[in-house]
Design goal:
Blueprint lengths: L1 H27 L5 H43 L3 E2 L1 H7 L4 H13 L4 E4 L5 E4 L6 H5 L8
Antiparallel strand pairs: 1-3, 2-3
Helix pairs in contact: 1-2, 3-4
Length: about 140
């Protein structure tokens, strides 16, 4: 669905830009129907912006899917993961995986830790193991 949204979005933008250029050249050329041409230019500008909006939605959905994938990987590894581990299990590059992990930390979902050897480990404390879930108690219990 994301790919379809992007394709439709780019098609709308290209279509709109093509006709927008035609109508702008007609307006510059001094065509008699200035009101109609200005209306068409406004309409095509709106459709072009709508195409951009579709692309933005597709990109947001892709990012959300990648975030969920990274969190699943981290959960499977006890809440701790490296960019290299994410890259191994996804189609992301190490650089893209690191950017995504940093973004999750910026959002407050995780924390960056550095090993004694200087390696980066991203920790997601909200991802509890089954043992931790089973041992959870009410804060009101004594």
């Amino acid at each position: 669905m994301r790919i379809l949204l992007k394709v439709i979005g780019y098609f709308i933008i290209i279509f709109s830009l093509t006709f927008l250029l035609v109508y702008i050249s007609m307006l510059i050329g001094g065509d008699d129907d200035r009101g109609v041409i200005i209306g068409l230019i406004a309409l095509l500008t709106g459709t072009g912006l709508f195409g951009g909006y579709l692309i933005k939605i597709a990109n947001r959905r892709q990012l959300e899917g990648q975030e969920k994938m990274v969190l699943r990987i981290a959960a499977a590894r006890g809440g701790k993961v490296t960019p290299e581990e994410v890259a191994m299990e996804t189609s992301l590059t190490v650089n893209d995986a690191q950017k995504l992990l940093e973004e999750l930390c910026t959002q407050g979902a995780g924390q960056l830790q550095v090993t004694d050897q200087g390696g980066l480990i991203y920790t997601f404390s909200g991802l509890l193991s089954e043992t931790e879930r089973d041992s959870a108690q009410s804060p009101l219990d004594d």
